[in-house]
Amino acid sequence: MQYIGITGSSLKKRLSRHFDSVRKLNSPLCLLMKKYKKEDFIIETIEEAKAKYLPQLEIKWIKHFNSIIPNGLNSNSGGAFRIKSINGNKNKNRILKS
To answer: Most CB contacts within 10 A, which of 22, 26, 61, 92?
Structure first.
């Protein structure tokens, strides 16, 4: 199953934040993370863009990969969150697939 998300941080930090929230949340992604270890997940960048474009790109990629429940782990069509650029570099923001 796939999950699409956006981040302004490194892939490792983003995955760690997801695992840190496992105890507090019961989203489909968190439930899966309770069953497996970090090492069992593959996370990759599918696109880099300026922060202002990430919400639209998240919507595009969730649709492309058909990753909304029950076909994937996204609970909605995306685009709701805004990302600030990391270290002032507006080109290092990412769309992720795990």
So the answer is: 61
Reading the block at residue 85, the tokens are 């650029």
Which of 70, 12, 69 is closest to 42 using CA atoms? 12
What predicted TM-score, i.e. pTM, was given to this entire model?
0.77
Residues 78/62, Cβ–Cβ less than 8 Å: yes
pLDDT tens, residue order, the chain (98 aa): 898 988 888 888 888 887 888 888 888 888 888 888 888 888 888 998 888 888 899 999 999 999 999 999 888 898 876 555 444 444 456 656 65
What is the SS3 assignment for 94? Answer: strand
Under 8 Å between Cβ of 58 and 83: no
